[in-house]
Amino acid sequence: MSGIILYGNDISPPVRACLLTLKALKLNFEYKHVDILAGEQLTDDFIKHNPQHTVPTLSDNGVWLWDSHAICAYLVDKYAKDDSLYPRDLVLRARVHQRLYFDASILFMSLRCITRPMFKNNVSIVPREKTQGIIEGYTLLEKFLTSAPYLVSDCLTIADFCCVATATSLGGVIELDAKKYPKVSAWIERLKKLPYYEEANGWGCKRYIEILKTRLTAIVS
Ligand SMILES: N[C@@H](CCC(=O)N[C@@H](CS)C(=O)NCC(=O)O)C(=O)O
Q1: Any residues with CB less than 8 A from the CB of 87 and at least 6 apart, and which?
Q2: Which of 13, 20, 70, 86 has the least CB density, counted as fewest CB within 10 Å?
Q3: Cα–Cα distance between 7 and 217 in angstroms, integer?
Q4: How far is the CA of 179 from the centre of ligand 1 (A)?
């Protein structure tokens, strides 16, 4: 065994970003399912390793790490045969970081601010103004993809993995309009062609969207 353990749940977009990275690197790893809807991440044992009690959490031979963006970068730096997924070139790496921070602070947050009250307090009605963040997210992605097939130039990177896991999940609240966002739509289709996409992101995302659709009853102005 490789000694790599990923604690996760396939409904979680950040977990799926790590699965995309692990699969792209063809790494052997153990996957430990954490039932976050039942609060399994809140046990003393889990919090001892990750005080933020979030999935994904990684243990690499006893090195504990959390946050999908940090995990994906670590895995490529440590295990990849080349640096294409996380370039060492200063400018390219800076651009990857910009997209990763965009996912962490803007894109994923636009979803989390809606889904957290749903999962924590059974809130089922969402004020329309809260969905504005999702529209802004799609709009910015469309701009980032204006002149290149991937988020950082011509090369697939972990920025694509992190952002696509979130972007495909936004459809649980506001479906992507392919006419309005053709570049985003084409970029998602491009990523769907990866041989490991369905296993790492596709089916978990479908399940996540199904769950959101059962919980979200209305978006109100
Ligand atoms: N920025 C973090 C976000 C992780 C996150 O919020 N995970 C959610 C699931 S999508 C979670 O573990 N929630 C359970 C909790 O906060 O207790 C990352 O990218 O890993």
Answers
A1: 93, 96, 152, 155, 157
A2: 70
A3: 31
A4: 31
Mean pLDDT for the stretch of residues 119-136: 94
CATH 3.40.1350.10 fits 90-220, yes or no: no
- pLDDT at position 165: 98
Boundaries of CATH 1.20.1050.10 in the chain? Answer: 90-220
CA distance 162 to 4: 20
Q: Indicate the average pLDDT of the chain.
A: 97
12 is catalytic: yes
Q: What are the residue ranges of CATH 3.40.30.10 in the chain? A: 4-79
Residues within a 6 A CB radius of ligand 1: 12-14, 36, 41, 53-56, 67-69, 104
**Architecture per CATH, 4-79:** 3-Layer(aba) Sandwich (3.40)
The residue contributing the CA closest to ligand 1 atom 6 is: 54
